[in-house]
Amino acid sequence: MTGRQLITDAQNTWCPGCGNFSIQHTLKNVLSEMENEGKSLDDVVLVSGIGCHAKIADYLNINTFYSIHGRTIPVATGIKLGNPNLTVICCTGDGDSYAEGLDHLIFAAKRNIDITVIVHNNRVYGLTTGQYTPTSPLGFKGKSTPSGTAEYPVNPIELMLASGATYVARGYSKKMDLLKKLVMEGISHKGFSFIDVLQICATFFPAADYYNPRVYELSDHDRTNFESACSKAREWDYNSDARIALGTFFTRSLPTFDEKTGRHEERVTDKKQSLRDVFLQKT
Amino acid sequence: MQDVSVLIGGKAGDGINSAGALVAQLLNHIGYSVYMYFDYPSLIRGGHNFAIIRGSEQNIGTCWNTLDFVLALNNETLERHRDKCRPETAIIFNADMVKSAGQGSAGQGIPVNAILTGEHAPAIMGNSAIIGGFAKAAGIEWDVVVAVINAHIPKGVDLNLKVAKKAYDQLETVRPLSRVQNPPRPLLTGNEAIGLGMVKGGLDAYVSYPMTPSSSLLHFLAEHQEKFGITVVHPENEIAVILMALGFAYAGKRSAVGTSGGGFCLMTEGLSLAGMAELPLVLLVSQRTGPSTGLPTYTAQSDLQFIRYAGQGEYPRLVVAPGDAQESLYWSEIAMNMAWKFQIPAFILTDKTLSEGTYSSSPADIPELLREESPAWQGTAPYLRYADAPSGISLLAFPGMKDAVIKVNGYMHDEAGITTEDAALTIQMTNKRLRKWEGLAEEMGRYPGVNVSGNPDASTALLCWGSTKGVCNEIASRLGLKVIQPIVLLPFPAIQVKKAMGGVKRVIAIEENATGQLAILAAQHGIVVDDRILWYDGRPISPEDLLEKVQGVVV
Questions:
Q1: Residue A10 placed within a domain
Q2: Residues 243-262 of A with CB under 8 A from B
Q3: B47-96 pLDDT tens trace
């Protein structure tokens, strides 16, 4: 389908000012550009989890798998292994991939499965009306932690570097040009691409005034150097007051899981003979 | 009638399972139908492992507690199984580990170490000496040993044969077995049969996290993945397992997962997603003794009620419980077809006894089945993934197809797959999904979903399911009773079971659980079970024990 209308008729229920609008708009632009470059959108699948971010599955008029909380990544992995010709994008939340499904995120990075994971990291549970997430700052006062959290946030950039991700980037929902560039790069990257997107939650964590003066774009940074990627990743720990780097921290080229995992179906011409061979072997 | 039982025992790490498999092949190659039960504790080295291999002229699926041969790799084997020996039981032992067969017992020792040293053979070949010794004691011709070792120990055939021959020449024939005029047949474990049935049903991908007693299916399919043209994945946990399998299904690939109760607990959210998203999926759940970790390497039939209701919400599912390897082959293929025809989860419910037991099979006797699937979308946009239909079955399309926008969704959704909270749509789509029960029940009526055997005129019937088929059949034939064994458990084949109950006045449920889970299911369909014989020590109920229990009820 060319020139398809990329937005469905589903009623949009994000709050005014929600950062998800920017991410959706970015994805829409990315999809248009892919189509202009000759890519068929029939070969694109978007997988979402559960949370405000996940409604993007209803809103974008492409193949989608609206999965369950925390489980975008295993679904996306199965789809990619099932049909490696597909471009598989995960839109997932910080609650999804840093809490409920953290194991899947780490393993996807470790495997280098060729999917692109975009984390809508608003650092708060929005849909369940305001509880802390794994990236909320220490002392965050949410509905489940009225006196403030007693735990430090995780640093997902550092975590992904440690887990073997081959493309690691951070975007910001108020820097759409950069975000588009990162998403395009992530999709083009052959291997596991991870993009943490600092996203404004207009209702429960409107952090624009915090982010705006602190964010800067990485330049003069060797994105193939793991040590300097780690050092840039540690500059801001999602808690302390520091400059917040945006852009690509690290990238490297490695064989992907979908390449290495046996795709034997094309090579077997006579399954019945194979079955007869095994029966004979067992006799 | 020819019938022989051989026990081989030693400590974990002695290769008891593979040595037992060779004994099974020797019996297979002299024409016997074979059943092998393997018993082992949950550890890697040490502990007592044993296998009982039984050969018979008729198809069997159970072992009596009376042994004709004991192959003892250590003293503990003799001590533990003394109660199963009679004076005429032939005892063959590793003379390096065992001093004598015991008082009043006829026994022959094999000097395993001396044979290995003489042949410059590694310790791993010690069991070939035991196999050679057994063959001689059982009067099995040397040619048969050569054929079996050639076929089943591909590495170091010549040296293994030399070792076996030394023992063969040293021992006396004490209990000669008569040849039966059958050609050798494939010996399959239940799990192997399930894997082969899945492959026959078009399996593209098997996803599993190791858990006894399902793991041997993962190993079997991983070993043969190239030959079968399938992808085998072992992910981080069972949650990932089922979600990956659903990803495969969305991409149009026939996938299956395998686990036991504890792993299946983790899969229930994914199962419910399969129910809501209407994604086809085949699940092997191989039961072991629970609750929780329970007895990891022992059997049970205590998860039927769990499987029946697992996952939040209401949605159709198929549950089949084959009773042996032959039925596993056949019904696993059917499960795969039905999952795809109705876009539902289809369970193959087994237990340790069946999954890890070895049976003679006859693949050629299984009817050829056609590949079945949901009707395909013909390309007329817009594609509606959940288009309503009288059957409840929507047309299927897969990503990559031109102009299809395929939206699957775990939320309540409309026909296009877009989330909805609309009351009327909620009812409509719920009914759409649940209507598939009717078509599924009708479809299953075309298959032999209830086995009826034994005395057709009996007024007493044993009602059983799964791996107790073998033991129930033997006891029923001895006592002149009928056996009713539903293989399809959901949708419950009430009409077929009631028909089988014709002339029956007394129904005795035989189950390896503590609450009578099939009896509960049957009762909900108006089938009255008069007595329950429940066995839950983790071991398969023996024919002796079942005989005593049934006689206690019937008399």
A1: no
A2: 261-262
A3: 999 999 999 999 999 999 999 999 999 999 999 999 999 999 999 999 99
CB–CB contact B151 A283 (8 Å) = yes
The number of domains in chain B is 3
Q: Is residue A59 domain-resident?
A: yes
pTM of the model as a whole:
0.97
- Asked whether residue B403 is assigned to any structural domain, the reply reads no
Distance, CA of B47 to CA of B73 (rounded, Å): 13
Q: Angle formed by the axes of helices A102-111 and A72-82, to 10°?
A: 30
Interface mutation vs chain A, best among B244, B257, B377, B396, most A CBs within 10 Å:
B244
> Do B229 and A267 count as a contact with CB atoms less than 8 A apart?
yes
A187-206 pLDDT, tens digit per residue, is 999 999 999 999 999 999 99
Q: What is the pLDDT of residues A113-143, one digit of tens each?
A: 999 999 999 999 999 999 999 999 999 999 9
Task: Kindly state whether residues B251 and B143 are assigned to the same domain.
Answer: no
Q: Specify whether the CB–CB gap between B229 and B205 falls below 8 A.
A: no
Residues across chain A = 283
Set of chain B residues whose Cβ sits within 8 Å of the Cβ of A50: 410
Residues 6+ apart with CB under 8 A from B118: B166
Among B196, B241, B408, whose Cβ lies nearest the Cβ of A66?
A: B408
Please report, for the domain that includes residue B355, its CATH number. 3.40.50.970
Q: Residue B337: which domain range?
A: 187-365
Q: Ramachandran region of residue B157, left (φ > 0), alpha (ψ -120 to 50) or beta? A: alpha
Cα B174 from Cα B90, distance rounded (Å): 7
The alpha carbon of residue A278 is apart from the nearest alpha carbon of chain B, in Å, by 9
Q: Are residues B269 and B316 in the same domain?
A: yes
Is residue A227 a part of any domain in this protein?
yes
Q: Which ipTM did the prediction report?
A: 0.97
The residues, ordered by sequence, that sit 6+ positions from B101 with a Cβ below 8 Å of its Cβ are B72, B78, B91, B93, B107, B108, B109
- Chain B residues whose CB is inside 8 A of the A275 CB are 196, 199-200, 228, 363
Count chain A–chain B contacts defined by CB atoms under 8 A.
197
CATH number reported for the structural domain that contains residue B104 in this entry: 3.40.920.10
Say whether both B145 and B201 belong to one domain: no
Instruction: Say if B207 is an interface residue toward chain A (CB within 8 Å).
Output: yes
Q: Are residues B221 and B153 in the same domain?
A: no
With CA atoms as reference, report the closest residue to B68 among B100, B92, B49, B48: B92
Smallest Cβ–Cβ distance between B235 and the set A50, A64, A107 belongs to A107
CB nearest to A81's CB, from B233, B405, B417: B233
Q: Are residues B329 and B202 in the same domain?
A: yes
Quick check: is B322 in a domain? Answer: yes
CATH of the domain at A250: 3.40.50.970
Q: How many Å lie between the alpha carbon of A1 and the closest alpha carbon of chain B?
A: 5
Helix, strand, coil tally for chain A in percent (to 5): 40, 20, 45
Give the pLDDT of residue A1: 45
- Please count the CA atoms within 13 angstroms of the CA of B154 that sit on its side-chain side: 2
CB B546 within 8 A of CB B471: yes
Q: Domain total for chain A?
A: 1
**A12 within a domain of the structure (yes/no):** no
Interface of A with B in 57-76 (CB under 8 A): 57-58, 61-68, 71, 74-76
